[in-house]
Amino acid sequence: MTISAFQGATTVLDSVLFRDAFGTPAIREIFSDRALIERYIEVEVALARAQASCGVIPAEAAEAIATHSKFESLDLDHLRHETDIVGYPILPLVHQLVKLCGEAGRYVHWGATTQDIMDTAVILQVRAALDLVDADIAELRRILAGLAVRHRDTPMAGRTHLQQALPITFGYKAAIWLAMFDRHAERLQQLRPRVLVGQFAGAAGTLASLGDQGLAVQRALMRELNLGVPATTWHVARDGLAEAVNFLALVTGSLGKIALDVMLMASTEFAELYEPFVTGRGASSTMPQKRNPISSELMLAASKAVRQHAGLMLDAMVQDFERATGPWHAEWMAIPESFVLTAGALNQARFMLGGLIVDTDRMRRNLGITSGLIVAEAVMMGLAPHMGRQQAHDVVYAACRHVNEKGGTLAEALEAVPEVSAHFDRAALERLTAPENYLGSAPRMVDQVVGMRDV
């Protein structure tokens, strides 16, 4: 790799060092400069063909525009220079396309405005990016379903407020993660028809320059591009794109939750989970024993960044009159970065969860460190029919304090209480205080989530 490769990037999304930690080649390609310009050209060509089909411009002009409007023919240095002057890339692009198309050039960009082309090009990018996200979510759901089924009955400590609360199974935890992504898959299908809508409306959104052919051309253009037809102009109604980025914030938020769980469970004191072992991954420069949860850390960082962009997109919805003076430009930053970060986080999640190392023995040992206190609720509910719930609570509470202060197990402490031993012998108390006997409906919830999915 040449030194020049290290000199052009200024963010982790393009950095030679960091770009594959925070993104993927496929998602970067969708949002690359070349791809964006090609989408501009695609929209301009589709517009010419749509107008020809409606009789607005000559058919031969549309074919000439399609033939000669090629990315490879552009003077990119001049395009960049003129974009710096104009502030938008479409007029500079049109200048070059007009020259490239010869006599047919007079019909390039007929009746369109800059934002029509840029908005529709972005929607084409979003469509391609959502396809990648959709595929990643499907693969992640398959991985999570496998974890949930494999560990349906693997007991471990459930924790609330970072304290051991009640026994659960690791499969139950994985099923909760899975259910989130089942809902995200549903959300993605539901938002497509709302978001994947093209833009063609002219200077102030009224299509006035095309007379009575405006709406016909609009419909024809959307057919060319296989996009939804807008009910009204959305130059300043940005809820669709805001929804797309906020959807990504939900996805990465769920990834952040999973990452936090894994990082905590991978800590030395828990030692219940480990990210896949790869020689050197997560190594410390000074502490050879370290095995840091790198993928989880990257997922958590991405979730925070996308959440900020989601807020930016909501802020950018507040636009003035029929064409905004600034908020639109914020989308140019938020949309590509959000998709790149989301794809990167999903990629890290697929790697990490696909090779997750689950220490079931350590989970069981951790489950026993409270000497039975984790199932105090089970004992209370077992005693309640004999002495009432409140008295049972008080008896078990006192027994728990005894274990905390004097040691021993909860079963031993309860056996010494006459009100308890009158109803339960030692064997019954051992069964009552065995964590694996108090899993509730956790395994059946795994079954509900997984359902008939092929795992």
TrEMBL record:
Listed Pfam families: ADSL_C, Lyase_1
GO biological process terms, semicolon-separated: 3,4-dihydroxybenzoate catabolic process
Keywords: Isomerase
SUPFAM superfamilies reported for this sequence: L-aspartase-like (SSF48557)
Coiled coil regions in record: none
EC number: 5.5.1.2
Domain Adenylosuccinate lyase C-terminal as annotated: residue spans: 371-450
GO molecular function, one term: 3-carboxy-cis,cis-muconate cycloisomerase activity
InterPro entries per the UniProt record, alphabetical: AdenyloSucc_lyase_C (IPR019468), Fumarate_lyase_fam (IPR000362), Fumarate_lyase_N (IPR022761), L-Aspartase-like (IPR008948), Protocat_PcaB-like (IPR012789)
Similarity field: Belongs to the class-II fumarase/aspartase family.
UniProt protein name: 3-carboxy-cis,cis-muconate cycloisomerase
